[in-house]
């Protein structure tokens, strides 16, 4: 690390606008000292480690230490003022609705299936955390209050279910597949609690952050809160709860459609304009949880830029593209790279992603549907006239928004030659403001030539009609894409070394594709089953050879079948893998071969 990097990034918390005092520790001065001291193997470990005293005291000590320039002093400073690592302080709560042998295990058609389902179901207890009374014994009086500021954790009111290992906290889009798994495990109360945790973050911050840590407060993740609410409502039919959740979904929608997240496309042929979404993190600094990695990428990417001001500007753009890729959940993938291969060419904010716009369509459709459900329940309630007016307004507004989005997806992202949706890229303009991007349709180009699983996400989100010719064309396109292997669906065909590329198969992508086929191309149900069975076989085999469920799998024939690549070592646990495995086991049973 050069002094240039220290100076360049200093002068502000890297969490940009995070309210919690712990954010102070994410300033470049501290992160650079952490990097220099090289105590923590994984960059995320430091930002998850509690300080021994409140921020003011730590900074006083930092000012008096030589930690900024000397690695021995940095190590001393960090050892004295921070704990030795991210010790798990939140409790593993009893999940009140957990019972052994839920129907997915009881009704299993073979012993292998029962054993697998039973094991995965057991894991909910291992992955449960309760933050609410995390440090209760220490929180007495002013001293207790100060102590609370020593952790980066966003404390949530209900038991959380986390992905596992380095992911010690709630993650936004992971939670959707965790909810599906919990419902399959007959645990509606826990599913309700984890959804309420997301709603609580909307109440507190106006949106759902990437994860429940203050350093994630400058970005979100693929918007699946309305999907969680829809699943939980379907299981509980609790209309009172739904009526309280709806305004929060609307609040999140306002965040998701902010001007800097919106790209306007003019169609010069038809004269129409279309508004579509992009990922756009609110930061121009390295991600605190991957500080060293981001600083190195930015340095490599700008090594030929001589002018200091231009270099700084270029680095800032790269930091935003990196954080925005993290917001997409696809961190990282050749999908976001200009040259299709190297992270240094990342350009996330210059891309209109097909999956994000599918997710937005799903949000709009679901808010309208949920408003209708709530309205039906109020039909005979004369005294709730004002609420009925509000719900009617939501129904109309979001039905219209979903129609408009569907047309936009069709006009801008659908590629009739390859019969799938594609990410489209636009050229950034010099000095262009972060908001109000406007481009002509003809100026857009396909972001990548090769297919990605995300190209098929709009099918799951309802971008075409169920049982329509278009839906079957999309399935044919998937079959031809070469993404499908007998070990699972690879994320892409590009071997970039990044984790959201070949040869990795991920639970959320697999589930969305299987369910999209079930719902939108029902004549291909057998194909959906084949895909589900490939996933189950691969996850089962890896469990048998390693003893664990994993974050991602390798579709090639490797010894353990575990997916690798990217900026951290492979993780076990694993929330969404467990959710998807239970759901597919319930629907299709274990493959009989
Ligand atoms: O620390 C690096 C990145 O780690 C997270 O991303 C990955 O794990 C998440 C939890 O399972 C998952 O939601 C995401 O799709 C994965 O790529 C984190 O979400 C990123 O923000 C972070 O930079």
Automatic annotation (TrEMBL):
<dbReference type="InterPro" id="IPR001661">
    <property type="entry name" value="Glyco_hydro_37"/>
</dbReference>
<dbReference type="InterPro" id="IPR012341">
    <property type="entry name" value="6hp_glycosidase-like_sf"/>
</dbReference>
<dbReference type="GO" id="GO:0005886">
    <property type="term" value="C:plasma membrane"/>
</dbReference>
<keyword id="KW-0378">Hydrolase</keyword>
<keyword id="KW-0326">Glycosidase</keyword>
<protein>
    <recommendedName>
        <fullName>Trehalase</fullName>
        <ecNumber>3.2.1.28</ecNumber>
    </recommendedName>
</protein>
<comment type="similarity">
    <text>Belongs to the glycosyl hydrolase 37 family.</text>
</comment>
<dbReference type="GO" id="GO:0004555">
    <property type="term" value="F:alpha,alpha-trehalase activity"/>
</dbReference>
<dbReference type="Pfam" id="PF01204">
    <property type="entry name" value="Trehalase"/>
</dbReference>
<dbReference type="InterPro" id="IPR018232">
    <property type="entry name" value="Glyco_hydro_37_CS"/>
</dbReference>
<dbReference type="GO" id="GO:0005993">
    <property type="term" value="P:trehalose catabolic process"/>
</dbReference>
<dbReference type="InterPro" id="IPR008928">
    <property type="entry name" value="6-hairpin_glycosidase_sf"/>
</dbReference>
């Amino acid at each position: 690390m050069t002094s240039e990097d220290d100076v360049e990034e200093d002068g502000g918390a890297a969490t940009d606008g995070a309210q919690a005092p712990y954010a102070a520790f994410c300033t470049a001065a501290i992160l650079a000292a952490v990097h220099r001291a090289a105590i923590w193997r994984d960059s995320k470990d430091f930002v998850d480690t509690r300080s021994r005293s409140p921020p003011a005291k730590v900074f006083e000590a930092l000012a008096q230490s030589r930690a900024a320039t000397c690695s021995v002093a940095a190590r001393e400073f960090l050892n004295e003022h921070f704990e030795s690592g991210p010790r798990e302080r939140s409790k593993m709560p009893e999940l009140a609705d957990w019972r052994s042998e839920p129907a997915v295990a009881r009704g299993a058609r073979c012993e292998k299936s029962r054993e697998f389902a039973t094991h995965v179901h057991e894991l909910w207890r291992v992955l449960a955390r309760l933050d609410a009374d995390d440090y209760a014994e220490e929180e007495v009086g002013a001293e207790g209050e100060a102590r609370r500021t020593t952790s980066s954790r966003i404390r949530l009111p209900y038991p959380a279910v986390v992905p596992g290992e380095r992911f010690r906290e709630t993650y936004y889009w992971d939670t959707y597949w965790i909810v599906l798994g919990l419902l399959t495990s007959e645990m509606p109360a826990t599913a309700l609690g984890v959804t309420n945790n997301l709603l609580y973050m909307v109440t507190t911050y106006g949106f759902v952050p990437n994860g429940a840590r203050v350093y994630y407060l400058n970005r979100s993740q693929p918007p699946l809160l309305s999907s969680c609410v829809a699943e939980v409502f379907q299981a509980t039919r609790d209309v009172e709860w739904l009526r309280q959740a709806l305004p929060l979904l609307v609040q999140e929608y306002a965040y998701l459609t902010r001007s800097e997240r919106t790209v306007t496309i003019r169609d010069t042929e038809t004269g129409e304009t279309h508004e579509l979404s992009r990922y756009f993190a609110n930061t121009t600094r390295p991600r605190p949880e991957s500080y060293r990695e981001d600083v190195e990428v930015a340095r490599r990417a700008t090594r030929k830029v001589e002018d200091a001001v231009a270099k700084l500007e270029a680095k800032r753009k790269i930091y935003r593209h990196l954080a925005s890729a993290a917001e997409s959940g696809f961190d990282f993938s050749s999908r976001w790279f200009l040259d299709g291969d190297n992270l240094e060419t990342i350009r996330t904010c210059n891309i209109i992603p097909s999956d994000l716009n599918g997710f937005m369509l799903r949000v709009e459709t679901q808010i309208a549907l949920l408003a209708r459900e709530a309205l039906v329940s109020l039909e005979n309630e004369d005294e709730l006239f004002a609420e009925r007016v509000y719900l009617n307004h939501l129904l109309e507004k979001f039905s219209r928004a979903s129609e408009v989005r569907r047309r936009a997806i069709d006009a801008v992202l659908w590629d009739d030659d390859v019969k799938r949706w594609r990410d489209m890229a636009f050229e950034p303009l010099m000095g262009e403001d972060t908001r109000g991007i406007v481009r002509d349709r003809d100026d857009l180009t396909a972001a990548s030539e090769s297919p990605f699983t995300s190209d098929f996400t709009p099918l799951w989100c309802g971008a075409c009609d169920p049982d329509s010719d278009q839906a079957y064309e999309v399935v044919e396109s998937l079959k031809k894409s070469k993404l499908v292997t007998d070990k699972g669906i690879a994320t892409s065909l590009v071997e970039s070394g990044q984790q959201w590329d070949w040869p990795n198969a991920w639970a959320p992508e697999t589930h969305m594709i299987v369910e999209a086929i079930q719902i939108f191309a029902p004549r291909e149900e057998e194909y959906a089953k084949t895909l589900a069975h490939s996933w189950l076989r691969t996850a089962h085999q890896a469990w048998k050879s390693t003893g664990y469920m994993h974050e991602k799998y390798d579709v090639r024939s490797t010894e353990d079948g575990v997916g690798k690549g990217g900026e951290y070592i492979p993780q076990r646990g694993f929330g969404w893998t467990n959710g998807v495995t239970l759901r597919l086991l319930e629907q299709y049973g274990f493959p009989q071969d």
